[in-house]
From TrEMBL:
Protein name in the entry: Uroporphyrinogen-III decarboxylase
Gene source species: Desulfosporosinus orientis (strain ATCC 19365 / DSM 765 / NCIMB 8382 / VKM B-1628 / Singapore I) (Desulfotomaculum orientis)
Example of a GO biological process term: porphyrin-containing compound biosynthetic process
Alphabetical list of CDD domains matching this protein: CmuC_like
GO molecular function: uroporphyrinogen decarboxylase activity
Uroporphyrinogen decarboxylase (URO-D) domain mapped to chain residues: 108-301
Coiled-coil annotated residue ranges, if any: none
Amino acid sequence: MLTKRQNLLETIKGGNPDRFVNQYEFMDIILESPVKLMCEPGTEFKNDWGITFRWPEGQLGQFPVHDEEHKVLKDITEWRKYVKAPVIDNSDEAWAAAVAHANSIDRNEQFVTAFVAPGVFEMCHHLMSMEDALMALCEEPEYMHELIDYLTEAELNYAKILIDRLHPDALFHHDDWGSQKSSFISPAMFEEFYLPAYKKIYGFYKANGVELIVHHSDSYAANLVPYMIEMGIDIWQGVMTTNNTPELIKKYGGQISFMGDIDSGVVDFPGWTPEHVEQEVERACKNCGKLYFIPNLTQGLNFSSFPGVYDSASEAIDKMSKKMF
């Protein structure tokens, strides 16, 4: 029987996996970074960039607050006045828990996985709001190029710390690039503004021992897949059914693999049932096949919003492995 790591590599390289890769099993994700990313439900916090995040009770997650009081970047033409990259605590004490976690992982079994969120596109609209960011791309492209370059350098500085401290062999990186049915910006605009940034970022990781780039975007982004390949993404995690995953596998399999096709919004809700989860898992596995595909809830970490859904999906995937392998 192949290890989780071996089975993943066989799957994404078109080899001979002996079962489906079961969701996130191949990654042991290091979440103990001193950089705070999340608040608890019913609370809010301000991160080191000055962005205020709020998680209202009863909602599924947090989002930045963009009223006039809380918006960080109020004028893209004066971005240098408002946007200041934080100094990351690189002390041994701050990184002790993350290093201990990384050192505890059996690298023959799983990938030691660094975690980065938010990505460059999300940082743009977190700083100034989605509306302002999209308008700035159209109306003030020179200033947006400058801001994106600045954010890219900040990411690279963090990448140096992650690599030095954790020696990861995989990266799990978040940046949502679309809604359920379209990308937020056109492919041409994505190519101009964000492709160069990600070629630098992912190229740096690959040049420094990271074997596997897993990018999360639980959205429609089928029109951006050629750029994903060019920037070095190995696995697109979060691929929704609206992308026509089987067609993407047929067209791009061997260049990139696809992780998802079990839409969280379809199975992960208060009235969920194991039977419904199993139906969606069976559909995904039969439609997408054994190679270049990892069945997975589209949510961006190894849990579900409602207790039991993620585990139920994992059990259903194991059942499909016994049927199809």
